[in-house]
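Give me the 3D structure for Helix-turn-helix.
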Amino acid sequence: MDNAEFNQIRKKLGKSQKQLAALLGVSLKAVGSYEQGLRSIPAYIERNLIFFLIYHERKPRKDFICWEVKNCHQKEQCPAWEFQSGNMCWFMYGTLCNGTCDSTYTEKIENCRSCIIFNSLIQQDN
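Predicted structure for Helix-turn-helix (126 residues):
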């Protein structure tokens, strides 16, 4: 996530920098630094922002679950299936998207950004 996307999500959420800082549990200075590109955005901040964006005005579709949409053959080994959270697969670590478990959040979110499940959740036109 870059600083422009961070700023865009904050505005979509309708939050001031101060409000977003409180929501994320970081300082106002940190939020300003993220938006200005002076500080890289940590994975946990990006993950929380995406979560807040998805839940801001709507709930994720419960009928649109990853193992069915992707016809997954490894679902029994995947935490998304274990916890019956196929619409929250993007949020969970250890999922087996593309047949393997990503080793870092950066790899995971990169895969998620090209996924039909993730993109259906972040689109504004649900």
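The longest helix spans residues 43-56. Let me know if you want a second pass.
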